[in-house]
Amino acid sequence: MQLPIIAYGAPILRKVASNIDQNYPDLKKLIEDMWETLYNSNGVGLAAPQINRDIRLFLVDSEVIFKNQEPEDEPYPDAPGIKRVFINAKITKLEGEPWPYNEGCLSIPKINEDVIRPESVTLEYLDEDFKPHTETFIGMTARIIQHEYDHIEGKLFIDYLKPLKKKMLQRKLTDISKGKVQVGYKMLFPKK
């Protein structure tokens, strides 16, 4: 079932999410619904706060990027990407040369800006079967993970922008929070 994505301005997007355990109600169904929501909105990552759940859960599918890559495009070092569920993730290390990339967010539609992030991220997490992993990711996959991880920490990609740039976007952000934006997927806007 496709779930509505929470729009910018909703308090849940600024809340630090809570850890969960195997007894979280209907977790398998929630993960299935999150995958469906992600693909129906043409995203590459989705965090639980974006679907109105304040839990430490996010999905990443960087395979989509590599499937759609043109042969003349600059290759990323993490090809062919991953498709993975991350539960109770904790970043343990950020390394490598910081690099800019034009990011967007399903909760902040029609705004894309360059964000500088380290090229490598190491994190501890549980998979959907609650098996523990410690793994390092690089390139585009690392960027998507950092973006989604920010969601479970109550941060958004616009928080990395310079104050002047953010000020210039304020009108668009206000329009999003008021529901004055058209997207091709279900959105839930903050109550007035």
From TrEMBL:
What's the record's note on cofactor binding? Answer: Binds 1 Fe(2+) ion.
> What are the positions of the active site?
148
Q: Which GO terms describe its biological process?
A: translation
One GO molecular function term of this record is: metal ion binding
Q: What is its EC number?
A: 3.5.1.88
Return the InterPro entries for the record. Answer: Peptide_deformylase (IPR023635), Peptide_deformylase_sf (IPR036821)
Please give the catalytic activity noted in the UniProt record: N-terminal N-formyl-L-methionyl-[peptide] + H2O = N-terminal L-methionyl-[peptide] + formate
EC class name: hydrolase
Q: Which CDD domains match?
A: Pep_deformylase
Which cofactors are reported in the record for this sequence? Fe(2+)
Transcription in keyword set:
no
Instruction: Give the residues the record marks as binding Fe cation.
Output: 105, 147, 151
Q: What keywords were assigned to this record?
A: Hydrolase, Iron, Metal-binding, Protein biosynthesis
Similarity section: Belongs to the polypeptide deformylase family.
Please explain the role this protein plays, according to its UniProt record. Answer: Removes the formyl group from the N-terminal Met of newly synthesized proteins. Requires at least a dipeptide for an efficient rate of reaction. N-terminal L-methionine is a prerequisite for activity but the enzyme has broad specificity at other positions.
The protein's name: Peptide deformylase
In its UniProt entry, the species of origin is given as Arachidicoccus rhizosphaerae
What does the record give as the organism's lineage?
Bacteria, Pseudomonadati, Bacteroidota, Chitinophagia, Chitinophagales
